[in-house]
Amino acid sequence: MIADFEKLSDEEVEIMLSAPLLVSILIAGADDEIDNAEIKKAVDISRSKQLRARKNLLDYYAEVGNDFEDKLKILIQHYPTQSKERNPRIIDELGKLNDVLPRLDKQFATEFYESLKDIAKKVAEASGGVLGYMAIGYEESKLIALKMVKDPASY
User: Does the predicted TM-score (pTM) go above 0.90?
Assistant: First the structure.
């Protein structure tokens, strides 16, 4: 288990471990369609973060990255196919981080939050745009700031 999670309940650990998956689904499906390029990008990001995340997050991403693609596909099927039904549920789930992050080491929580925003941006850029312009669609642009999660640096 990740040392920072020892003081968390099982449910809180679960939301922490599922957060990158939820962000990936939220952003990939913002335009109502989760395409293969977005899934592939999310999987690639998880692999990259296992190797190149900030030091505080390496153990976290080692655990999260294990079977990431399978977990992502299973979780996608857990939610409704229409974004207008799916997104509010995912936003509510991600909002639970607001109760968890203040209980973690501030540096870990801050780096975790920034990492989630990085995932959101990279997934948003995965399938969009023409010749590199307008790479982030309108629906995605409304969500990539992850405003449902309070910045732990502000606590």
Answer: yes
